[in-house]
Amino acid sequence: MSGQNIQRSILCGLIGSGIQASRTPAMHEREGEEQGRRYVYRLIDIAALGLGVEALPELLTAAERMGFNGLNITYPFKQQIIPLLDELSDDARALNAVNTVVLRDGKRIGYNTDCSGWGEAFRRGLPDVARKHVVQLGAGGAGAAVAHAALSQKVGTLHIRDAEPARAVELAASLCERFGAGRALACEDLAAAMKQADGLIHCTPTGMEKLPGLPLPAELIEGRHWISEIVYFPLETELLRVARQKGCRTLDGGGMAVFQAVDAFRHFTGLEPDSERMLRHFASM
């Protein structure tokens, strides 16, 4: 009987800092409702609760005791959560980052759906683009996930640039270990890399409402480039606006936001989400 109850009603949440504007709860709850489940998705925002990062173990234990089915994990906890887990998926282990935790049978299992989320969005949005040389801006948690997905999507060489050059060097080294020597390089000369590049993947916070602007000089973007953006709030960033004016093919950050939620929903519930319906719901928000 209890198994049936768990399936009929689902309780999940998002742990992070400054997450009040997140669209994740609405996406999960709406899809749960469409599937005939009582689905409650809570924001556990340490900024709103007046807590520090040291509260993570306590929050995880509390969620477990209260019968949560799973948790999404965002900034600043994607790495910090790892020592508190029992198992990791291959992607989460390779990335050393977790954004989805399933709580089941007394176990905490970590996944990374940022990686699969970007991969699915790219497969659908820019399926036929040239990808011999690609520049990626940003080597943080999301950047690492996207870089792994990009090399899995047959990108030849990924040129990675970050505001902290050591972070780009470190990410490139770990990608070469997984995908082969020379598949990723830390990018020192952005102008030269863009001259050679087929496309650009943007994985920094620049362009978000609180950080408006362009992540690179506009003159480096040419009409022959394709541009993939992961910022989705707003959906039309300055980067995408400039790129479209120049005639570039573009992919906004909405697809990654939806498909990481699609995969997390699947992990949490064991149900098959309707990704087209979730895309429509996201677009209507």
TrEMBL record:
The record's EC number reads 1.1.1.25
Q: Is Amino-acid biosynthesis a UniProt keyword of this protein?
A: yes
Alphabetized InterPro entries for the sequence: Aminoacid_DH-like_N_sf (IPR046346), NAD(P)-bd_dom_sf (IPR036291), Shikimate_DH-bd_N (IPR013708), Shikimate_DH_fam (IPR022893)
The protein's annotated pathway: Metabolic intermediate biosynthesis; chorismate biosynthesis; chorismate from D-erythrose 4-phosphate and phosphoenolpyruvate: step 4/7
What GO cellular component entries does it have?
cytosol
Q: Which GO terms describe its biological process?
A: aromatic amino acid family biosynthetic process; chorismate biosynthetic process; shikimate metabolic process
Please name the Pfam families in this protein's record. Shikimate_dh_N
Q: Where is the Shikimate dehydrogenase substrate binding N-terminal domain?
A: 14-101
Give any GO molecular function from the UniProt entry. shikimate 3-dehydrogenase (NADP+) activity
Keyword Transmembrane applies: no
Q: Which domain of life is it from?
A: Bacteria
Give the matching PANTHER family.
BIFUNCTIONAL 3-DEHYDROQUINATE DEHYDRATASE_SHIKIMATE DEHYDROGENASE, CHLOROPLASTIC (PTHR21089:SF1), SHIKIMATE DEHYDROGENASE (PTHR21089)
Q: Which NCBIfam families match?
A: PRK00258.3-3 (NF001319), PRK12549.1 (NF009201)
| UniProt-recorded name of the protein | Shikimate 5-dehydrogenase
